Amino acid sequence: MSYYFAIVGTQDSPLFEYEFGTSKQGGDGQPRFSEQARHMNQFIVHSSLDIVEEVQWGGGQMYLKCVDKFFNNYVSCFVTGGNVKFLLLHQPTTPVPTASTRSSTSIGANPTSPQTEEAIKSFMLEVYENWVKTIMSPFYRVNMEVRSPMFRQRVTAAGRKYL
Prior knowledge:
5 strands
């Protein structure tokens, strides 16, 4: 499965972007987006912001699960207390049959399965912990792009660990 992770600020501008692939089940951690899909990732994630803003006030939870689907791309969201959105676009390696009643245990096989949702939630919580540590820096200003190599390494480590 390929992933595109973006942190979107309160003014809907990207603060952090990262592409990676699955490291589970023999994956090498490299994203498998086609060149055309790679250009669409940002558009897909940002187009889901309208849905996120509708859903975020409904349940009062920070992790909103899978909020949008665009063809074979799924968008999951985590909203911080400061209204910063963590958006994860995940694309299964093969198209998911919608008529199937069985749920596969493979994280990459079914992007809406409970196992996948739990793995994404754990990833988001770990990134959130690192996000809080990053924005606590006296040099960070609200809605400033995050360029810290340490933060990128920690997001990479969380991706390898959970996804």
